[in-house]
Amino acid sequence: MHKEQQSFIRKYIFSTDHKVIGFQYTIVGLFMALVGGYLAYVFRYNLAFPGESIPFFGDALDPKTYNGFVTYHGAIMFFWVAMPILLAGFGNLLIPLMVGTDDMAFPTVNMLSFWIFFLSTVVLLISLFLPSGPFDGGWTIYPPLSADGYHVKPSFPASIATGGTLFLLALALEFTSMIMGGINFIVTTIAKRTQGMTLFRLPIFVWFQNIAALIFMVSVGPVVAGAVMLLLDRTVGTGFFDPARGGDPILWQHLFWFFGHPEVYVILLPALGIIGEIIPTFSRKPLFGYRMMIYLVLVAAFLSVIVWAHHQFVAGIDPRMGTFFSVGTILISVPFAGVILSLIATMFQGKIRFTTAMCFATGMVAAFLVGGLTGIFLGSDVFDIYAHDTYFVVAHFHYTVFPIAILASLAGIYYWFPKFTGKQLNETLGKIHFWLTFIFFNLFAFPLFFLGLAGQHRRIANYEVFDYLAQEPFTTLRVIATIGVIGIWIAQFVFLWNLIKTLRSKEVAERNPWNATTLEWAADSPPPHGNWQTPPVVYRWAYEYSPENQTKDFIPQYVQE
Amino acid sequence: MKILPDRASSYAAEVDSVFWLILLFVSIGFVITLAVLLYAIFSKRERAKYFTGSNWREYRWVAFGMIGIALADFIILGYELKVWHKTQWLPEETHYKVGVLARQWNFEYYYPGPDGQLWTNDDIIVRPPQDTLVLPLNKKVMVELRSADVIHALFIPAFRFKYDCIPGRTIQRWFEPTKEGIYMVSCAELCGVLHSRMRSTVKVVPESAFQAFLQQKRMEPLATK
Amino acid sequence: MERSVSIGRIPTGRLGMWLLVVGELIIFGGLIACYLLYRLRYPEWEEAASHTNMLLGAINTFVLLTSSYTVVLAHKAAIHENVSKARTFLLITILLGLVFLGIKVVEYSEKIAAGYTIAGPSLFWSFYYTATGLHALHVIVGMIALFVIRQQIRSGPYLHRVELGALYWHMVDIIWIFLFPLFYIAK
User: Fold this and answer.
1) What integer pLDDT is reported at residue B21 of this predicted model?
2) Which of A498, A481, A531, A489 is CA-nearest to residue A103?
3) What would you report as the CA-atom Rg of chain A, rounded to the nearest whole angstrom?
4) CATH number assigned to the domain with residue range B96-224, chosen from the 4 options 2.60.40.420, 3.40.1190.20, 1.10.730.10, 3.40.50.720
5) What is the DSSP string of B158-180?
């Protein structure tokens, strides 16, 4: 299956190789993480030291720019960091290898998806630098605000080159790209598995990626339709969400959150999949409750598409609906408790080896536990009325999304780095990176709970006009949170140094440095285009670690006994 | 440092009790899970024990955990839905009506005029530069929320009260102030450039003072209308 | 743990196309659901709906149904590896698509001349143009796809792609089957 020598452009730019595409997604995602992180630094600094000029930026933020920055920070971290890295990046790199095939089912479509995604990134970045300013209507894009309050009648061609229109366009392109990618994942998994790779021998990562792709496909349709409607509202003057013309702004909230809540699971599941590969490897133990975990996640996936209105308790929805959505939301804690406990049970009585990847994985579980449990507060409609749109919510979702998008991604990068580059990241630097990231993350996010409980509401550039929020101890808490963000930044320089150092070194990693069982470790490091000289054959499930009556403590899937 | 701000409405204490109840269960769950996690991490072994959790005997520990969470969920829901019912459905009798009209970037407050109806021409209106919502002590007040432009939210932390003001809709909720004083009001929904400065205050006064306030407002020239 | 569950091998193209069709149907489903919600809220849209041209709509339904039949014939010819016949029926399908779009243009210009544009007077018209316009866009995409397939099968082992194109074309047809009664008949 070796392809002949290809030109640089065919090989690295317009490549149909799933690994190159996976890298492209990951690199764009990491770049956007820097952009999103930079925005976070700027507005956190502004919150801690209101009115003072910001190092590496300039003057203090005016409210409009502040609103723009929080909007882009949210959207970027969700759609241009978590999605490309976790879903598209890791999915592309690993799924074909893990199911033992040479490439995705539709390599050309795969390449196309990436370039649509790339286009969406470019459109988004353009919208950030428009002379009329970036879009500043919040990442949830609630109309009428996102349609400029409908005060201004759009004049057709000019109305396209506005921040909000380009923002929506970028989002629509991103969705298209991810739908195409998701279809590729599902088809590859169903139709291109190698000999012996039955469904219940698939690594948990492949399962979770596919369930994520499925949830995404099912939930994103209505918001795509909604985005088209909102785009028309902004450009040609329809009034789908304009109450003055019979439209209804709440409709957008339904469309958005019908997608928005499952979307969290679309990024959560790949993260859990990564963790689910790493923990067994470094505990030398089979993944606990493998099948149950799949069933539980399917239950959670189903629940996720019927609880969306818990984001709208304060929007005056019918109280009976509130009851329904509250019950559904809180009950989601049950399947996820099963998943998290199973991951912990996997470590139980294992022989644990604390590599950097394992540190990040364990840290992810611990931090996500806080995020998941605080979700119960917000699932309760009574308390949500108070906590909605306060920093309690901000703290809660940073405790879910940061472990997902950052800790799990980094865990995966440390774990699979030797496979895809042939070189192994430095462990000492890796551990420094982990501890700095983990500690500073908590330093950043935990104070936000107290700020939220005190009634500090979101998306405020400067709290000086809000009585007691402008006093101690809240000013200090805001400074602590900002120090946390700066600390997270410093930690990433350690990572950058590690990357540069490793890539420049001549040391070559082993084929299977962690003694792992899944198929990707049977390929060369890095795997060539086409992955295998001869396709592997699968003889067992993915987690045969420390089997009884054996001297070896692992038997890979591809080894015949 | 107080975790939650001062309470000044009849149901604030119950809302807080929901918080403390959930915090209790969540803390128990968190401590147990973290303890197991730490134990699993720090217990050293020569060789890992092989078990897959594919039968009940092994899986039951996780199942117990799930049952525990489910039980806690039901206790929380059982309690909090009762409070939900109390806070959301309008009480049979409310003593006063107040209208809130949010606009970029302030709140206007409406009291019914002689006709007893809100949103009519004879309403008594408090609008900037005055920005205080005066309320009677220990009286149930029905609030009607509206918006003139984009979505806002009226947030009175001391009352544990927060609802959106949505253009094209009227949202009816209620509260009963139970403590005299002046409290902060903020807009809790991103509403445009000056969202950061959109604020107001609530002033709770005895009913007699409230009546006097209304009387005085009625005397003011109607020119502002 | 060693219980094996295996499923039959499905051709990747067909599976992928089915998933795409499902994804598209959900997008249109969202749009139609929004329309229905508004329609139930505003009975006065009846009046607006009575201005749509049911005759042209019905003719278009007929055209599209016929094109679905011809694409089935193309598929059948492809199964029998009759390239020239498959290409003929694909051409007829594409031409029928053109007829559909032509009638659409007549319809739109008639409406715009009467003052019913995408921006009003009623939100009904916004939905009308958005839904039928988005559908027309899919007709165009389908025609391009069928055209490309028609070129490909002339020289190359791509006969199975006729089925994929046909699947997509059926989806376009099915969406219209929903749009026609909702916008033209329901008064």
Assistant:
1) 97
2) A531
3) 23
4) 2.60.40.420
5) GGTEEEEE-BT--EEEEE-B-S-
pLDDT value at A15 more than 50: yes
Distance from C-alpha of A331 to C-alpha of A329, rounded to nearest angstrom: 5
Q: CA dist A38 to A78, A217, A267, C26, C139, Å?
A: 15, 31, 22, 36, 44
CA dist B83 and A402 (Å) reads 33
Complex ipTM > 0.90:
yes
Structural domains of chain C, with CATH:
12-185 (1.20.120.80)
As a whole number, mean pLDDT of residues C134-139 equals 97
Q: How far is A236 from chain C (nearest CA, A)?
A: 7
Interface touch A222/C123, C-beta < 8 Å: no
pLDDT in tens, B35-62: 999 999 988 888 999 999 999 999 999 9
Residue bearing tokens 């090989």:
A11
Residue (of A316, A282, A300, A109) closest to A208 by Cα position: A300
Give the number of domains in chain A: 1
Nearest to B69 among A142, A333, A466 (CB): A333
B193 in contact with chain A, both atoms CB, cutoff 8 A: yes
Please name the residue of chain B whose CA is at the shortest distance from the CA of residue A385: B162
Predicted pLDDT at A151: 64
CA gap B72, B68 in Å, rounded: 6
Expressed as residue numbers, the domain containing A495 is 19-522
Confidence label for B128 from pLDDT (cuts 50, 70 and 90) = confident
Residue A326 bridge partners (DSSP): none
Residue A257 resides in a domain: yes
Which of A345, A460, A545 lies nearest to residue B62, judging by beta carbons?
A345
Rounded mean pLDDT, A468-476: 91
List the domain boundaries for chain B: 12-88, 96-224
Lookup result for tokens 């080159």: A161
Residue B94 has pLDDT above 80, yes or no: yes
Q: What is the pTM of this model?
A: 0.95
- What CATH number is given to the structural domain containing A392? 1.20.210.10
Predicted confidence (pLDDT) at residue C7 exceeds the cutoff of 60: no
Q: Do B188 and A457 touch (CB under 8 A)?
A: yes
Cα-based torsion angle of the residue sequence A85, A88, A94, A99 in order, rounded to the nearest 10 degrees: 160
Backbone angles phi, psi at A102, to 5 degrees: -85, -30
Q: 3-state class of B67 per DSSP?
A: helix
Taking residues A425-439, report their average pLDDT: 97
Tens-digit pLDDT profile for residues A154-207:
677 777 788 899 999 999 999 999 999 999 999 999 999 999 999 999 999 999
C-alpha distances in angstroms, C185 versus A232, C53, C57, C128? 25, 9, 9, 13
The pLDDT assigned to A5 comes to 63
Look at residue B222 in the predicted model and tell me its pLDDT.
57
Report d(CA C32, CA A466) in Å as an integer: 44
